[in-house]
């Protein structure tokens, strides 16, 4: 069925509250964070102010150092967030899209108590020009809140393929409201074809008890219509974790398929150590990446679970499966020892 197979043990160390303290055991420390988690461009936006004002910046590409530079000069007439104190504490944040990962974010310093901040800072990206030209620059302005309740003040998005690279001068641009497509995540990242199966403990009926613990089988078949980050295509591979376990024991990946936006992986992974009750609290995270020497670029992913927002009684941001993903996982839970086939759209996690 597949050209490669991986089998690893999956141990949760089930977590129970103790009557004396009511606290979770210390080995849950890693549960609250997701290894390599992907942030939304608009994460942390608690504000409701209307976008206004302008931003002055310039773009340049340093051929010698293979570096993209965003010279952020200043902003004028930004919206006031704290009306009582008539103040905003603005900073500028940039992303290269479609890569919304933490590695693609840059930001300036925060300027206190001003709607006309002056920065004169250069935000730098080490990136090949060929890759840069098939991306977009998202530049947004935010009010910084001490409690992390940051407010969106406006943005501008530039298609770098059509940018005039001879223009290195500082220019003013009006700040615009958020684009609905980005807010709602309406971006096509491709579709993954896969099958999953759950084998309960002892269900194969052989002696000794076979298998001694439950197993989850994940068969990654192929992906269609990946984002093309360079003219020659993409060199893609798939990562797999079973959350909340983000250790090396949980991490598995496929081989790299080169120069193909429709890669065929045909890779099967088996996780043992599962008990049936773990299926309510676990989440299989499959992410697709473009492989490069210096850094890998996130292309999209899926999360298979019940999407309850909770794992072993703890609130976690990665238990966020879509309706399609939840239905796929539930079908597997109800049909022990049967392969369940699915075709799921990749998304920004």
UniProtKB/TrEMBL annotation:
InterPro entries, A to Z: C2_dom (IPR000008), C2_domain_sf (IPR035892), SYTL1-5_C2B (IPR043567)
A GO biological-process term: exocytosis
GO molecular function, one term: neurexin family protein binding
Main location (coarse class): membrane
SMART domains reported in the protein's UniProt record: C2 (SM00239)
Location(s), subcellular: Cell membrane
Keywords: Cell membrane, Exocytosis, Membrane, Repeat
Annotated spans, Disordered: 1-29
Chain intervals with Polar residues compositional bias: 1-12
Domain called C2: residue spans: 51-173, 188-319
Domain of life of the native organism: Eukaryota
Gene Ontology cellular component terms for the protein in this record: exocytic vesicle; plasma membrane
Listed PANTHER family: BITESIZE, ISOFORM I, SYNAPTOTAGMIN LIKE 2
This protein's name: Synaptotagmin-like protein 2
Gene that this sequence comes from: Sytl2_1
């Amino acid at each position: 069925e597949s050209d490669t197979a991986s089998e690893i043990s999956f141990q949760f160390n089930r977590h129970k509250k103790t009557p004396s303290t009511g606290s979770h055991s210390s080995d849950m420390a890693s549960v609250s964070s997701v290894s390599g988690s992907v942030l939304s461009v608009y994460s942390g936006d608690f504000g409701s102010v209307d976008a206004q004002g302008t931003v002055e910046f310039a773009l340049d590409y340093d051929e010698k150092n293979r570096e993209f530079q965003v010279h952020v000069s200043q902003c004028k007439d930004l919206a006031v967030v704290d009306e009582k104190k008539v103040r905003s504490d603005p900073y500028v944040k940039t992303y290269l899209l479609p890569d919304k990962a933490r590695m693609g974010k840059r930001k300036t310093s925060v300027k206190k108590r001003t709607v006309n901040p002056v920065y004169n800072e250069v935000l730098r990206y080490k990136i090949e020009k060929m890759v840069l030209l098939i991306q977009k620059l998202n530049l947004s302005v935010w009010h910084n809140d001490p409690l992390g309740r940051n407010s969106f003040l406006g943005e501008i998005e530039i298609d770098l393929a059509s940018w005039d690279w001879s223009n290195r001068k500082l220019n003013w641009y009006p700040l615009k409201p958020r684009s609905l497509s980005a807010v709602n995540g309406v971006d096509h990242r491709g579709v993954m074809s896969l099958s999953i199966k759950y084998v309960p403990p002892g269900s194969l009926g052989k002696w000794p008890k076979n298998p001694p613990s439950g197993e989850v089988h994940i068969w990654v078949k192929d992906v269609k219509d990946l984002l093309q980050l360079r003219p020659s295509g993409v060199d893609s591979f798939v990562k797999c974790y079973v959350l909340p376990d983000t250790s090396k024991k949980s991490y598995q990946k496929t081989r790299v398929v080169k120069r193909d936006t429709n890669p065929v992986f045909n890779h099967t992974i088996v996780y043992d150590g599962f008990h049936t009750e773990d299926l309510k609290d676990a989440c299989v995270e499959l992410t697709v990446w473009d492989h490069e020497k210096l850094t890998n670029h996130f292309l999209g992913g899926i999360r298979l679970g019940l999407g309850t927002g909770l794992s072993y009684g703890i609130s976690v941001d990665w238990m966020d499966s879509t309706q399609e993903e939840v239905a796929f996982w539930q079908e597997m839970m109800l049909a022990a020892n049967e392969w369940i086939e699915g075709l799921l759209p990749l998304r920004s996690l």
